[in-house]
Amino acid sequence: MSDYIEQNGFPFQSNEMHDLCVCGGSPATALAAKRSTAAYAEMLKRNPNFQTWRDDAHAIKKYGVENLDKLLVEFEKNLIAKGIEVLWAEDAREANRLILEIAKKHGVKKVVKSKSLVSEEIQLDPAFEKNGITPIETDLGEFILQLAHQRPTHTVVPALHLTAEEIGRLFEKELKEPYTAVHGELTAMARKHLREHFLTADMGVSGVNFGIADTGSFVVIENEGNAGLSTSTPPVHVAIMGIEKVIPSIDYLPQFLHVLPRSATDQKLTTYTHLFNGPTEGRKMYVVLIDNGRTNVLADPATFSTLYCVRCGACMNACPVYHRVGGWAYGWIYPGPIGEILNPHLVGMEKAGKLPFASSLCEKCAQVCPVKVAIPEQLVHLRNQSTQTRSPMQSWYQAILWKTWNFACTSGFRYAWFMYAVRWGAWGAKFLPRPFHILELGAWTQGRTIPRPAKRSFRQWWRARQKQK
Predict the structure, then answer these.
(1) CA nearest 353: which of 389, 304, 300, 322?
(2) Whole-angstrom Cα distance, residue 39 to residue 265?
(3) How far apart are CA 193 and CA 196, in angstroms?
(4) CA torsion 16→19→21→27, rounded to 10°?
(5) Distance separating the N- and C-terminal Cα atoms of the chain
(6) Among 127, 324, 144, which residue's Cα sits nearest to residue 224?
(7) Contacts of residue 450, Cβ cutoff 8 Å, sequence gap at least 6
(8) Which of 236, 242, 351, 438 is the most exposed place for a label (fewest CB within 10 A)?
(9) How does pLDDT run across 308-357, given as a tens digit for each residue?
(10) 290 - beta bridge partners?
(11) Could you give the CA distance from residue 427 to residue 341 in angstroms, rounded to a whole number?
């Protein structure tokens, strides 16, 4: 596992990043972006059929979403026929209630969890803890973040923002292990501590990558082996799945196994591909199907392609805005371009209506998406919707900001002085008391330092260039 981690950019050695100065974002994020961009380009050269695979995956997801009602009924029927209990949750609160009822029924005190974005979305860990149940994250990145009491910054590599040195200090403090920054040694430490949890847990929780309607099966893909242990060792397995994850047939699974690993980590195939076909004798298996705003996406013809997403993280790896601001700036579990179009549906336009504006509309996200989600078009559509749901508070201070910007930009002289003020403000910000998280600045200043201004402005560079001609 340590070889996989090192090759795919996590954890990072901080000495690799000292020369990287990224405006606002983590240097680790920048280095990962640089690596993933190069890896994606090489992957396309090695796989001349990749664009055809993308077309096929897009067509399958389009059919699946357009026929979601029928496929979910078929999926439920075939799951039940295999002895799997199926539960439906309209929102996060109901999902947590149903999962807690399962835990209470089986006397659960400890839960091991494999990586699940839906569990992050519904805030399952806090629900467990509030009810006296200990959740243990077993994905290495999630395990690190649980120790650090932090949220993920990336859908595939949750602890992308941390260096190996920082993780070593964390293990030293929380696990009482001797300090090291060596990848293999860090992995071995995590494995040692997690092994006992696998053996003593009362219930395992997993996400679902694909639900297969015609067989009543579901698929979990992973690289570390923790998902296999989390789902096979405890006597109870609860799989939580967003309703959009269903596909029509097992025959179509290879199309997604072609594109998802290559888009996420430049792998031909993830290390483990688990197909679950029902509980073994003496064990219980549950599938919780969760809406939590997904039918809101489905109801709008302009946005329902958001539900095609397979959570590969490729759009984040390609996005210049994500590289600069990091995952926490988006405010919810789904960062990057996919978060900009998904979060407003999940938490409401009133809370997340600003996210569609966090884009340059360069369309890099659409170019790399393995299922061809029309992200730029949806961003424009959601921007229009967002302007209709402004709160009074947003209206007055944003009006002032835009009027100030307009005043500065309509005169070359005023613009020059405005940019001087910005440069001096960024320099002086390091002397301000902490925390300094005012209004909109909160999402940008949490967890990061104020970026250092360039040594000279673009205008200065341009003038010098013109003189050299």
Answers:
(1) 389
(2) 8
(3) 6
(4) 10
(5) 54
(6) 144
(7) 426, 429, 430
(8) 438
(9) 999 999 999 999 999 888 888 898 889 999 999 999 988 888 888 889 99
(10) 89, 242
(11) 34
Q: Which two tokens stand for residue 438?
A: 């005012």
Lookup result for tokens 């993780």 = 167
- For 123-170, write each residue's pLDDT tens digit: 999 999 999 999 999 999 999 999 999 999 999 989 988 889 999 999
In angstroms, rounded to a whole number, what is the distance separating the alpha carbons of residues 315 and 311? 9
Which residues are within 8 A (CB) of 402 and not within 5 positions of it... i.e. 6 or more apart?
none
C-alpha distances (whole Å) from 14 to each of 28, 29, 167, 292 are 8, 12, 11, 39
Question: Could you tell me the sign of the dihedral formed by the alpha carbons of 348, 351, 355, 356, in that order?
Answer: positive
- CA geometry: angle 166, 426, 395, nearest 5 deg: 105
Give CA separation, 39 vs 32, 134, 270, in Å: 10, 38, 16
Is the separation of the CB atoms in 372 and 365 below 8 Å?
Answer: no
CA pair distance 135, 344, nearest whole angstrom: 28
Question: If we measure between CA atoms, which residue out of 431, 404, 439, 428 comes closest to residue 418?
Answer: 404
CA dihedral 125, 296, 348, 440 (to 10 degrees): 100
pLDDT mean over 442-452: 61
Residue keyed to tokens 């897009």? 58
